[in-house]
Specification:
130 residues, 1 helix
């Protein structure tokens, strides 16, 4: 995945090491903001992530990261607890982020490309035609 797909200037190479993961980028605008959702998953390792970023000056402010890992018991989301203006650009995690465990099951494994997209669409309320 090229760095320009989901720019995180302060995260270095760590943010882009998706390895053998499948990935998809969805771009959209809402309430005057240009946004991106980076969906990536690895079906054999039971790992999923969908990061919602708001574009700011060629960088992204990560507002939420929906995740599932086989090592955790449930789906969870790391979400910014601050307004967009107060979230630093270019980095995924910091003191402005809180982790929220989810009580509902979003998807059963195994998932494929369309299933991974559907999870992000349902959680973030995206247009299904993307």
């Amino acid at each position: 995945m090229p760095r320009s797909a989901f720019p995180l200037s302060k995260s270095g190479g760590k943010a882009y090491r998706l390895g053998n993961r499948r990935w998809r980028l969805v771009k959209f605008s809402t309430q005057g903001h240009q946004c991106r959702v980076l969906i990536n998953y690895h079906p054999l390792l039971w790992q999923y992530q969908a990061m919602l970023g708001v574009e700011v000056n060629g960088d992204c402010k990560v507002m939420a990261s929906l995740e599932y890992h086989a090592t955790h018991e449930a789906w969870h989301v790391h979400e910014a607890k601050e307004p967009i203006a107060e979230v630093p650009a270019g980095i995924r995690r910091g003191p402005w982020v809180k982790k929220v465990e989810m009580t509902s099951i979003l998807a059963a494994w195994p998932i494929d490309d369309s299933g991974a997209f559907k999870i992000a669409v349902d959680y973030f309320g995206l247009d299904r035609t993307g």
